[in-house]
Structure formats: C-alpha cells, structure tokens
Automatic annotation (TrEMBL):
It comes from Gossypium tomentosum. Residues 2-119 form the COP9 signalosome complex subunit 3 N-terminal helical repeats domain. GO terms for cellular component: COP9 signalosome. Keywords: Cytoplasm. This is COP9 signalosome complex subunit 3 N-terminal helical repeats domain-containing protein.
Length: 200
C-alpha cells in the first residue's frame, strides 16, 4: 500500500485517501515504525477533510505506540482544532487521547482550546470528554488516591482503548519506573478492593 501511496499522490505534500488506510493497517499490525515513515512528510494538499482527521488521529496513535509523545500531541491537536461544523467521533476520541498525552508529556493540561478552534469544538468537546477532565483535576491536584480510585471506578477507558495511556499517567504521577509497574500497582489496588480491605 505504501507503494500505491507514492504512485498516486501528486507530491510528497499531497494527502490521499490511502494515507489513513495505510496508518490503520500499521496500527492493527502494531507496525508503528512502518507507519511513522509517512508521518515525517509535511502535508499541505488534502482532497477530503475526513482523510485529514483520520490521518492525524491514526498518526497520533502510531506516535503513542512509539512513545513519540510530542509528535502525537501535535497530530491530535490538529484533529481537535481542525475546522468542523459539528463535532465528530474522531475529534472526540482524539481529544481524550490529547488530554492523556498532555498529562504524560507535561503533567498538566490546558482546559481551554485555542481561539482558532471551531466554535463547535469549543462548545461541545469538554462536555463529551468530562470524565477525562475529572481525571485531569485529580492528577493536577496531586490527589493520587483520588486518581487511583477514579481509574478503578471509570471502566469507560477500557472500552476507549485508553487504559494504556492512563497507566502511563499513573506511572508518571506516582513515580513508578515503568508502565508495567503501574499496571501491577493498579492490579494490586483492584485485588485489595475485592478482598474488602481499605487503605484508610
């Protein structure tokens, strides 16, 4: 498919409908390095706006898979701030990951969108991602017990496929050495909860 992309695009700056399809295949195959190869090229020509949404969203996920969080943040930011008449599902999912990656990278998250964001995004994204704003409040206030409780009680992230990013956030917050250690920390909390024990 990479050969087809190179054949059908008019230049390296041209985004085709094949670009997001290629990135999705790379995600499904967990071949992040291969997917990253087309993310290094600047895009200035787009045929369909939806292709750009998907390209940046899948590209952000590719970068998360490689722990290139700064590039992931840039791509997800492009989705969230892109012109849109109504908020779409891609923008909502991108915004959730944008919040989590911001916490991993900077330890904080700006709750306001840039002025050049669409009015639809500014009006609706926060309410559609409220659970993630609540988590950010626990994170930024240093209430690690609240953050742990929040992760346990909000299983939505497992369905969002954002649990790995949440574990990375916990690892950074409680200064654990790895995502694996954070996962063990969460499992211990769940085990303690099942046995009816309390930290208090």
């Amino acid at each position: 498919m990479l050969t087809a992309i190179r054949k059908f695009r008019s230049s390296t700056e041209h985004l085709t409908a094949l670009h997001p399809e290629f990135l999705l295949l790379c995600l499904l195959a967990k071949s992040y390095k291969t997917g990253h190869s087309i993310l290094e090229e600047d895009i200035f020509e787009v045929d369909q706006p939806n292709d750009l949404f998907l390209y940046c969203y899948y590209g952000g996920m590719i970068c998360i898979g490689q722990k290139h969080f700064q590039k992931a943040l840039e791509l997800l930011h492009n989705v969230v701030t892109a012109p849109m008449f109504a908020v779409n599902a891609i923008a909502v999912e991108a915004y959730k990951k944008y919040i989590l990656v911001s916490l991993i990278l900077h330890g904080q998250f700006s709750t306001s969108l840039p002025k050049y964001s669409s009015s639809a995004a500014q009006r609706n994204l926060r309410s559609l991602c409220q659970l993630y704003f609540d988590m950010e409040n626990s994170y930024s206030n240093g209430k690690f017990g609240d953050l742990e409780t929040y992760v346990q009680s909000n299983k939505e992230r497992e369905h969002d496929n954002n649990l790995g990013l949440v574990k990375q956030d916990i690892a950074n917050t409680v200064q654990l050495s790895s995502v694996w250690e954070a996962e063990m920390h969460v499992l211990q909390m769940l085990s303690t909860r099942r046995m009816g024990w309390s930290d208090s």
